[in-house]
Write a structure and sequence with these properties.
Structural class: alpha/beta
Strand order of the largest sheet: 1-7-2-6-3-4-5
Helix content: 25-40%
Strand content: 5-15%
Radius of gyration: 26 Å
Number of helices: 18
């Protein structure tokens, strides 16, 4: 699981975890305790949110009720904003918090430099923020597991949390990114923090930091604020142990203000975020190792094994069975043990994670009929063409209903432009093929989520975006056609066929079309499609299975955590 697992001098017990060490800790809060709230939050300055969906907070004609004068403040435009958690409907207050968070996004695209002002560096700012919130002296009292790495650090954190919870500890878990709702980043005892607790801690942090904003010390950017908020939540909620996932790298990450972790973990390394961490494994390893503070020891007690089997993280090796009216997370519908439309979701977006994703998907679909092994013999080449052409295998075992099911495996894919699909897609196809798994079709769609907006699980979902630029999705489609057909040169798509395929949904027959008739040079694409809207894509898949009860569609959703989160959000609606 770990490439490296480092323990400090504060040893744990329960196997290798010291149960009593956690439970014996006393919370000796000073008179400046960070969890004594003098008011109900929340206060948001209009100058922060003026560009964020026009909240229209105005002192004149305001419908919000009175609040203690302690939280009244004049903005530069002399507009006083009053708000009270008790007086606002919870959903409205939560959406307001999302707007406030969105105002902390300092860059529009990943890879571009952050535009944080002020005269202090990141770690100096972090220390000042912690001091403002009176957390400086309490963070050392937390028992912290700090995990960095390229791939699997979120999953490793989830394993650690589940193990320790099974050992009887009160746990806190901080991971990133979130898929549907920002509260996913903060778990207490295995559950996302509740809305009311989130709002309580969020607005207290926000208001205290706002009171100390200056030209030298601006508000923290988004991830830095969420990191500070995590520390505040875990201190105030009195967790026995906090598991903290590094955001990016390690040495310069906002989470690296932790001075005395109980454990430091490093998961497998790979070539990712090279624009920040460097373009060699040595450079990347140097950043990751920056969280180390001591020396090793190991064992695997029974509670650890139970924790590993119960750990879960949204969008990582997650299976969702979807029926015509209900969706079931993690298990098949009660009225049909196999289901008609099944989503396999994994946010793999690097070569290493894509290989693992492909192996997991191939194992999960569990086709009962053995497919031919691929070799250079003409018989096997013809067999491979038959697999691609038919697009499904009929089971020869099992009950009659199962054997009559038409099984289609579809890839639903998108990735950020900073990724390299020329590595990701061949890795996916070749790894699946080595296990005898082949995709009938591939669908390329844009994600709904945007880099510069924080949303919640109840935020409105647009059905589509008019005049959306789909050039990236068409480039993915061209690459897919090259891979499937073994074409060396570029695949040129006719402009009119591109426009038609994006603006209209594929006909139902697209699912059953023989791929052998696919001719990219002639603009006849039977292997793939670009659809301009993810909600329409989900609707189209549901309509397909409704119209054919013998059809079983297995959809692998991968390439982007944004895409996986968007699909989960749609399936929960």
């Amino acid at each position: 699981m770990f490439s490296m697992f480092v323990y400090t001098n504060n040893y744990l017990k329960c196997g290798i975890v010291r149960v009593s060490h956690f439970h014996e800790r006393e919370y000796k809060f000073s008179t400046r305790a960070p969890c004594k709230y003098s008011f109900q939050p929340a206060f948001v300055g209009t100058h922060d949110l003026i560009d964020r969906r026009k909240l229209h907070f105005q002192a004149r004609g305001s419908k919000y009720h009175k609040m203690s004068s302690q939280v009244m403040e004049k903005t530069e435009s002399n507009v006083a904003v009053e708000d009270s958690l008790r007086d606002l409907p919870l959903s409205n207050s939560y959406e307001t918090a999302m707007e406030a968070l969105s105002s902390l996004i300092t860059r529009q695209k990943r890879g571009t430099p952050s535009s944080v002002g002020g005269k202090y560096g990141k770690f100096d700012r972090m220390q000042m923020y912690l001091k403002i919130l009176n957390l400086e002296e309490h963070i050392p009292e937390l028992k912290i597991i700090h995990v960095a790495g390229t791939k699997g650090k979120g999953s490793t954190c989830a394993f650690c949390e589940a193990i320790l919870r099974e050992c009887g500890f009160r746990t806190g878990l901080f991971t990133s990114p979130h898929l549907i709702d920002v509260r996913e980043r903060f778990r207490i005892d295995g559950f996302d923090i509740s809305e009311d607790k989130f709002l309580l801690h969020f607005w207290d942090c926000w208001n205290q930091l706002k009171e100390h904003v200056s030209d030298d010390l601006p508000m923290p950017p988004l991830f830095q604020f969420l990191t500070v908020l995590a520390f505040k939540i875990f201190v105030c909620e009195k967790v026995d142990v906090a598991i903290i996932e590094v955001g990016l790298g390690g040495k310069r990450d906002s989470t690296n203000v932790i001075k005395e972790p109980v454990v430091c973990g490093i998961t497998p390394l790979g070539m990712d975020h090279t624009e920040v961490l460097g373009n060699t494994l040595g450079c990347i390893a140097s950043h990751k190792a920056g969280i180390f503070k001591d020396n090793p020891e190991s064992n695997m007690p029974e509670a650890f094994l139970r924790g590993l089997t119960t750990a879960h993280l949204y969008g990582r090796a997650q299976v969702v069975h979807d029926s015509s009216s209900n969706c079931h997370f993690g298990s098949a519908p009660a009225d049909n043990s196999s289901g008609d439309l099944i989503f396999y979701l994994d946010g793999a977006h690097s070569p290493e994670s894509m290989e693992v994703c492909a192996k997991w998907f191939s194992s999960a679909v569990q086709e009962s009929k053995q497919l031919p092994n691929l070799s250079s013999s003409s018989h096997d080449v013809e067999s491979m063409k038959e697999v691609w052409g038919n697009g499904y295998i009929q089971s020869e075992r099992g009950n009659t209903n199962e054997s009559n099911k038409i099984s289609k495996k579809i890839l639903l894919f998108n990735c950020m432009e900073v990724r390299d699909p020329q590595i990701l897609l061949p890795q996916l196809v070749s790894t699946c093929a080595s296990s005898g798994t082949y995709f009938s079709k591939a669908i390329f769609v844009p994600s709904i989520s945007t880099y510069n907006k924080v949303t919640s699980g109840t935020s409105a979902i647009p059905s589509g975006i008019s005049n959306q630029d789909l050039s990236w999705q068409f480039s993915l489609q061209r690459l897919w056609e090259k891979i499937i057909h073994g074409i060396e040169g570029d695949v040129v798509l006719d402009e009119s066929s591109k426009l038609d395929s994006a603006e209209t949904l594929p006909p139902r027959e697209f699912l059953y079309e023989d791929a052998s008739r696919c001719s990219p040079a002639d603009g006849n694409l039977a292997c793939s499609s670009v659809i301009s809207s993810l909600p329409l894509t989900i609707k189209w898949l549901r309509d397909c299975v409704r119209e054919n009860p013998t059809l079983r569609i297995r959809v692998l959703v991968t390439g982007s955590l944004h895409l996986v989160g968007d699909v989960l959000k749609l399936l929960k609606r």
